[in-house]
Model the fold of this input.
Amino acid sequence: QIRKNSFMNIKLSKVKKSKISDVDFSNLGFCKYYTDHMFICDYEDKSWKNFRIVPFEDLKLSPACTTLHYGQTIFEGLKAYKNDNDDILIFRSDKNAKRFNISAHRMCMPSIPEEIFTDSINQLLNVEKDWVPSGKDNSLYIRPLMFAVDPYIGIKPADKYIFMIICGLAGGYYSEPVNVKIEKKYTRAISGGVGYAKTAANYAAALYPAVEAQKEGYHQLIWTDGKEHNYVEESGTMNLFFVINNTLITPPLGDTVLDGVTRDSIISVCSELDIKVEVRKISINEIIDSLDKGLMTEAFGAGTAATVAPIKTIGYNSKNYNLPKIDKSDYSQKILDYLNKIKFGKIEDKFGWVTKL
Ligand code: COI
Done:
């Protein structure tokens, strides 16, 4: 099963019996089902080794494992799609590889050669081909992760790490347009911090404020800058886009915002769709003012899991502002449709984003 052109020597141990017959393909949810196998390798003595594909199973870790205490861990999220010819298409794994190493650097973790990152995905998918679902809203969600494994209580970068990849079946992440609340009190990231790294700390720190907002009926928060809470940054699961006066506006990256692959793809495809984009700071005042005046016609989030997720309601200072209902002519829908066509190989991949397995 391991392709000959793999430059890693990967040991394959296959499951005795696949779990695939347990899957309800008409109702995938998001990562309700994991595939049969996972990729795993070790970082020891300053190099990556022991490449293996094994049955998806629990890990054995020391209770003193530094990740459990000090959180030296990073991850990625990307997707593979099945087209009408049953080809498997992987979207922008090279971009995820680069971001993974940016996160690794910030968290004092070893980098992983981009070829190991992308080829281990290809090799795992080669074994899990049958698991990539068909259907325009379905995909295989690929979750690479790295974490420290030293059994060590104390603060220092670990010496030993695991890099692994698991895959889960993905339908939609949000089943309906989302309600988001502009957060003025809590902070997701501050300049000089780890906001741009895809590390567990960012998600853990966001849980409490998000749960508070969920009690008020919101799905997610719109995070604002940690200094003055005046400018919007991102939503915990997605980057943000607003359409004001027919212009698509998204906040700039900097070190407090995750460099989303979907965000980057959207900015790129806008030139093909004749959509004017502005990457610039956007204040809460501008958002509320344009909502009040009816100048904001759309707002949406963008992420690998969430894809393009239209926003229904923006909450601010105990007031809810509703956005117009989704229409086929919305920028969000045109962009979603164009990106899907690239992902499923239905139009020319001008950007060179798709890898056929
Ligand atoms: C992704 O979009 O890949 C993420 O990691 C976000 C998470 C909500 C699943």
Helices lie at 66-70, 93-106, 114-127, 200-215, 261-269, 284-292, 331-343. Residues 77, 237, 303-305 surround 2-OXO-4-methylpentanoic acid (CB under 6 Å).
